[in-house]
Write the structure tokens for this entry.
Amino acid sequence: MPNVALYNIEGTPVGEIYLDDGVFGAEINEAAIYQVVKMQLANKRQGTQSALTRGEVRGGGRKPWRQKGTGRARHGSIRSPLWVKGGVVFAPKPRDYSYTVPKKIRRLAMKSALSSKVANDEIIVLDSLKLPQPKTKEMARVLKNLKVTRKALVVLPEKDEVVQRAIRNIPGVKLAYINTLNVLDILNYDMFIATQDAVRRIEEVYA
């Protein structure tokens, strides 16, 4: 069972917290992570790209010149893909790129992502995260106390308006809740910062 240091918002160690082996100490499955990240990126695509085929471009109804005798290559329309301002071959059209992978693979990917943070010593667990005021400088002070200088994902068990307002203007730092936590965010941010209540909730959900 992996255990990590427990800190307060002053950056002082106040003990240790034991993490569930099945969630934070699982074998890292890169194939599952790849599948889920690929799915998330596909689901984020708007799919609104569109171009005109030769049948949709305006003009080109008349043959530009006769078939033979001009010495030039034969053409039937000035809106052929070979021409400037012509149609696009296999033009992209609006479509839905979203798809899903099995729930077991999604859970395996989440466990693998969380376990990778523990294995790489990129996790910080706080006893609690209560700020006196919803000000950016308050959250910046907490990050400075924890010696966090890289991109960080802060995870809370439930919505906290004070922390949300304090964190939203800090570049490279994102706030997530248990119900919005995802594999892509965990991997995109260098440090994973969570309260001990959030850790226990994660263990309940993914155990």
The domain at 3-45+99-206 is CATH 3.40.1370.10 (Ribosomal Protein L4; Chain: A;). The chain is about 35% helix and 15% strand. The CA atoms of residues 25 and 115 lie 5 Å apart.
